[in-house]
Amino acid sequence: MPAITLPDGSVRQFDGTVTGTDIAASIGPGLAKAAIAIEVDGQLRDMGRPVEQDASIRFVTRKDTEALEMIRHDAAHVLAEAVQSLFPGTQVTIGPSIENGFYYDFYRNEPFKPEDFPAIEQRMHEIIKANASFTRETWPRDEAIKFFEDRGERFKAELIRDLPGDEEISIYRQGEWLDLCRGPHLRSTGDVGNAFKLMKVAGAYWRGDHRNPMLTRIYGTAWRDKKELEAHLHQLEEAERRDHRRIGKEMDLFHIQEEAVGQVFWHAKGWRLYTALQDYMRRAQTRAGYEEVRTPQLVDRALWEASGHWSKYRHHMFVATVEDEDKTLALKPMNCPCHVQIFRHGLRSYRELPLRMAEFGACHRYEPSGSLHGIMRVRGFTQDDAHIFCTEDQIADETVRFVAMLTEVYKDLGFEHFRIKFSDRPEQRSGSDEVWDKSEAALKRACEIAGVEYEYNPGEGAFYGPKLEFVLRDAIGRDWQCGTLQVDLVLPERLDANYIGEDSARHRPVMLHRAILGSFERFIGILIEQHAGKFPLWLAPMQVVVASIVSDAAPYAEEVVARLRKAGLTVESDTRADKINAKIREHSVARVPVILVVGRKEAEAGTVAMRRLGGADQEMLTLDEAVTRLSEEAKAPDIRRG
RNA sequence: GCCGGCGUAGCACAGUGGUAGUGCAGCGGUUUUGUAAACCGAAGGCCGGGAGUUCGAAUCUCUCCGCCGGCACCA
Questions:
Q1: Residues sharing a CB contact under 8 Å with residue A639, sequence separation 6 or more, in sequence order
Q2: Measured between alpha carbons, how far is A324 from A203 in angstroms, rounded to an integer?
């Protein structure tokens, strides 16, 4: 005799067990029609599943966020049924809902092709039209395993075998087809609707392990209605226009070619952006009490052996030898061991701590070919790296300072929001458990003091210590780690870094590895996508173009250019015998933030007509005014703050 | 690295076995123009590299390289 409490606080009594469908029907036909799932004491369930005990409930309709997830999950089931009916012999595995849609991983000798999509989608529409109810059954474990094995579904059987012993084996039927699934599901396949689209095929390892067979994954997107679907597809197109690889080409910022895979040729304009960013970072570091150093690129293998990198990561290192010398050198994949060498040079006193050693360090890593991505994941890159040598007592304070610095930098560069992940000890690591306990606890405590909220990212730390990762998102929603802060009690030990303490004995410093941008290459990639190439004036690769209307105004245009250049702006003239419309268009497409137009009038009056990127208006200014205003505006945010 | 797709002029693309094309950019002219594309002309190609099939290959096959989408990896 369950008593059901509704969201408005009212209580309804029922005779015997009831289902969500019964409860909705008892409230009214409108709700019975709209409710697609029920939340029972905070747990989402199928409408048809009985509620045996007293409970607080809430109905979920198509408008609720939970609905979207269920639509996507159900779409995955419908996809699986469609594929198995069209391609007999295909084995099913798993098919979850994901951001913006769903996927399903299949095992089949022949992979699917995008050309198969129309037929699969067609079949999916038929299944949805048939509107078969999703019905839940629970099966005995052995029976379920036998059932799937008899059908040749070895992946499903393996999944069931690996489920915890006390877990219920639930099976969902939709018409003739069924699948192992935890649920919950919508009422019937018809609830999926028609706002879905298959997007792409991809390979994916079974259970995410590269030693396992490769499955074919079909990705789809699914929404509540056609309008949402259209909006999403439109947004994808917009995102493609922001792609840093495309903008890099359009704006002539950089290129990469076969002879230097994973390494960037920075063109003049891209390098202007790069150096503006580097200058800014250098000032920020100086203000924050860092000292800048520079260490070698090629370092003897012996140092990497001592640091522990040689044994664990030499397959990711570029190694160099010369004929006349029996030595093996490696391009540094990171700067830390080199910084320790500087720290170790001479005796260090506790009075020097915390010692913040920064380097724009050029590093090389042999990254797997498949992981390379534009300038975001490369093999040669420059980190805004620094190592803080300090005492354990100083970890918290240094963390607070670092987070404050990073937050300011990100904000200055246009990033108000970013995610923070806390990654702890990985399986393969250096250092005793005791040392790890200590460094993880220290970093956690520092986060509390700094008021840092993070997501927990188990087992993803560096081999020498736990880390905070600061994650930014690119135009199409891919996450990239940029900033990082890592606590390291291992390397100072391995490389014998020490300082003389107050007690005149030798002590081991703690090393904090930290970066804000991460790598210039990756960060600039994200920066390009964030701004869609329309940079604030201080970062713009070409800040101003002075365009003449008639050739008589050309000498004056050059004069304007000279004045602006003298004021430190990056500026170009355009005195070609073209129409002003063409020039405006060309430089607008090139995303030049300011166009100064000069014709006879301006040449005579000593003025310029200023036009902003994206705007349609023009502002008439005297040349002096323009120079003053633009040079003020072109100041980096930290300089403007004074 | 793995699965799939792709690679044609500086860029964007067309070309499914029979003499390599279009648009834009660039170059040479003409046009002196007032805020998002003036007009004319001549150029420009080892059709990613190599091998094979064929009388004949951009086109079919194999292989290598690179890029793209995922997966795995990311000290």
A1: A283
A2: 46
Mean pLDDT in residue range A462-485: 92
Reported ipTM:
0.95
Q: What is the mean pLDDT of chain A?
A: 94
Residue A316 in tokens = 């990711």
Structure-derived torsion over alpha carbons of residues A526, A530, A535, A536, reported in degrees to the nearest 10: -110
> For residue A475, what pLDDT band results from cuts at 50, 70 and 90?
confident
d(CA A629, CA A632): 5
At A338, is the secondary structure helix, strand, or coil? helix
Task: Give the nucleotide at minimum CA-to-C1' distance from A202.
Answer: B70
Catalytic residue check, A467:
yes
**A12 pLDDT exceeds 90?**
no
Is A411 among the residues known to form the active site? no
pLDDT value of position A183: 84
Cα separation, A299 vs A338, whole angstroms: 9
Of all nucleotides in the shown strands, which has a C1' nearest the CA of A488? B75
Q: Are A263 and A318 in contact (CB under 8 A)?
A: no
Q: Do A330 and A301 meet the contact criterion of CB atoms below 8 Å apart?
A: yes
Q: Is A139 exposed, middle or buried (0-12, 13-18, 19+ CB in 10 A)?
A: middle
The DSSP code sequence of A128-172 is HHHTPBEEEEEE-HHHHHHHHHHTT-HHHHHHHHHS-TTS-EEEE
Question: Distance between CA A512 and CA A287 in Å, rounded?
Answer: 18
State how far the Cα of A118 lies from the Cα of A121, in Å rounded to an integer: 5
Specify whether A129 is catalytic.
no
Is A486 a known active-site residue?
A: no
Which is nearest to A104 in space by CA: A69, A77, A135?
A77
What average pLDDT score do residues A225-244 get?
93
Catalytic residue among A387, A494, A522, A563: A387
Sequence letter at residue A615: G
Close Cβ partners of A324 (under 8 Å, ≥ 6 residues apart): none
Read off the amino acid at residue A514. R
Cα–Cα distances (Å) from A527 to A536, A622, A640, in that order, read 11, 33, 21
- What is the separation of C-alpha A152 from the centre of its chain, rounded to a whole number of angstroms? 38
- Protein CA at A106 to nucleotide C1' at B57, angstroms: 37
* CA–CA dist A145, A151 (Å, integer): 10
The amino acid sitting at A97 is: S
Q: Mapping DSSP to helix (H, G, I), strand (E, B) and coil, where does residue A638 land?
A: helix
Report the range of poorest mean pLDDT among A337-351, A365-379, A419-433, A490-504: A419-433
Task: With a cut of 70, say whether residue A1 has pLDDT above it.
Answer: no
Lowest average pLDDT, out of A2-16, A231-245, A408-422, goes to A2-16
- A346 Ramachandran zone, left/alpha/beta (phi>0; psi -120 to 50): left
Q: Are A97 and A218 in contact (CB under 8 A)?
A: no
Q: How many of the other CB atoms lie within 10 Å of CB of A13?
A: 9
